[in-house]
TrEMBL record:
Pfam families: Abhydrolase_6
Gene3D superfamilies: alpha/beta hydrolase
Organism expressing this protein natively: Chaetomium globosum (strain ATCC 6205 / CBS 148.51 / DSM 1962 / NBRC 6347 / NRRL 1970) (Soil fungus)
Descriptive protein name: AB hydrolase-1 domain-containing protein
Residue ranges of every copy of the AB hydrolase-1 domain listed in the record: 71-240
Keyword Protein biosynthesis: no
Length: 275
């Protein structure tokens, strides 16, 4: 007769395998994707032809054939692309997110125009051997996506999506924007140095603090302002921890190196885009 211990060992193995299979099949419902993605990918660096440094991150499915470039908002950085990392992994899309000059570790450039940015994007795409790609641009990243549409040929740029993008304020005005944003855009056009000082004083000092929770507290306080649309408040309250982390890290790294980058970008956004 077989002993109980002889039967017990293989049964334990079968039970363990069935448990692992169940967990894998139910990984989305159990929130395991979020747990895996809690650790942000490391920042990468690329030296552009003019010797400027471009900081960027790769999210989603790093080895996928399909590639989408993510253009962050302002002030923010490439870490913001963490928002789409789960979706990219699920649907097999590599998300390449560069930080624009002066943000996220990219070299500041005070004489760059919006129409110059496609050259930076193409240089990074060539470096990564990306032959064709799409673009997703959020908020202040929208003009840079439109610039790429102007400068990059259709076979290489396969498509483009704009999410809550800023519009040309020189022709359409700033009605509907939050008052602080309207003021900053106007002032930055003429006095970017003043705006840089304000950004660094209000956000930069918090971003450089070792306590990462201070930046989130600052953003939460901003969300609670009367001028914040109710839809934004509800979206923030409903956001998962991973989503909030992406927003907080995006802003934190976007201003940690100073306010010059975001201020010059606001100057560009508030002026004629050049096309």
């Amino acid at each position: 007769m077989l002993s109980h211990s002889f039967l017990y060992t293989p049964l334990l193995g079968i039970a363990a395998l069935l448990t692992l299979l169940f967990v894998w099949l139910k990984r989305d419902e159990l929130g395991l994707w979020v747990e895996v993605e809690e650790k942000l990918p490391e920042t990468r660096y690329f030296v552009l032809p003019d010797q400027r440094q471009m900081a960027y991150g790769i999210y989603g499915a790093p080895n996928a054939a399909s590639t989408v470039f993510y253009f962050h908002g302002c002030p923010s950085s490439h870490h913001e692309a963490f928002l789409l990392s789960e979706a990219g992994r699920r649907y097999g899309v590599r998300i390449v997110a560069p930080s624009r000059p002066g943000s996220g570790g990219s070299t500041f450039r005070d004489n760059g125009a919006i129409l110059d940015y496609p050259d930076d994007v193409l240089a990074l795409a060539d470096y990564l051997n990306i032959t064709k790609f799409g673009i997703v641009a959020v908020s202040g990243g929208a003009p840079y996506a439109f610039a790429c549409r102007q400068r990059i040929s259709r076979p290489r740029l396969t498509g483009m999506g704009i999410v809550a993008g800023i519009y040309p304020v020189t022709s359409l005005g700033t009605a509907g924007m939050k008052l602080p944003s309207r003021i900053m855009l106007r002032v930055a056009t003429w006095l970017p140095g003043v705006v840089a000082w304000l950004i660094d004083r209000q956000l930069g000092t918090v971003a450089r603090d070792k306590d990462e929770g201070k930046m989130e507290a600052l953003l939460v306080a901003d969300m609670q302002q009367d001028s914040t649309p109710q839809s934004d408040k509800l979206a923030w309250e409903a956001a998962r921890p991973a989503i909030r982390k992406a927003v907080v890290m995006g802003v934190r790294e976007g201003v940690r190196y100073g306010g010059q980058g975001p201020a010059w970008e606001m100057k560009s956004l508030g002026s004629h885009w050049g096309f």
